[in-house]
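My current task is to audit a protein record that another person submitted. Alongside the sequence sits a line of tokens, each denoting a local backbone shape. Please read both lines and tell me whether the tokens look consistent with the sequence. Do not assume that whoever made the record got everything right. Thanks in advance; the entry in question is below.
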Amino acid sequence: MAILYSILTLFLVAAFPYKSALNVNLEDCQNGQHKEGEFKELVWSDEFDGEGDLDGDKWFAQTKLPPWGSWYGGLINHYTDREENIYLSEGYLHLVAKKESLEDQGHTKNYTSARLNSKFAFTYGRVEVRAKMPSGVGTWPAIWMLSKDINEDGAYWQQQGFGKTNWPDCGEIDIVEHWGKNQDFVQSAVHTRASHGHEVSTLGGRKIENASDQFHLYSLVWTEDKLMFSIDGILHYTYAPQNKSNANWPFDSDQYFLFNIAIEPDIDPAFEQSAMQVDYIRVYQ
């Protein structure tokens, strides 16, 4: 049996030179923690074909400010639903951060961007997003997920009658974040009651080439036991607490997607505009 295991291991290493969201390791398969070939059925996607407006059956532009008039983290931008900040062109979603003065909801801000909520939510599966990050010191783009039961006034799912759980108890999954002040470093993180906010320790990332000039594939595998994050097929972080509790594992119910570009107070004064471009998002179960 040991010889057979060694031969099989050598075959897998030769056939799959890195472990990815698509190819879990042999030990996981043997232990029953994850079945090879799981999550193959495409259940939801957006290829962002066409020109102009987003598919309103799939996306909602979240614009309502928190009660104190600024977005969490001291951000200095408005999120809008205007075509100047969100549009389709040449087969891509363009989510644009711009330097411009805009008065909205009684507050004037000097930068605009967009924050999208998906009208699709799910539990467990594999996510693939092919995207290109914006650039510029002070830009903070993210592709991430929140519980559809988050208590956040103005979010799509709260308007549908959900919204009973406060952050971070609801759980947050950051598939990818990128900071223009640390160009080409991309990170994934998991926020829970046990670890969240600026003190979050449940995270991992790595430096890649040309995060803002080339498309990269950002992937998540979400099972009952773990969250596995990959970039271009290379695993860079796994979150799998051994002793699960409500404090460290609220990830057993539906979550939805968010795309946004936040503008931080230290934005480069020379910044004018930059876009996150998304080729597609796909969910398999």
Q: What stands out?
A: Residues 2-15 form the longest helix (14 residues). Residues 1-34 have pLDDT under 50 and may be disordered. The two ends are 32 Å apart (CA to CA). The first strand starts at residue 42 and ends at 46.
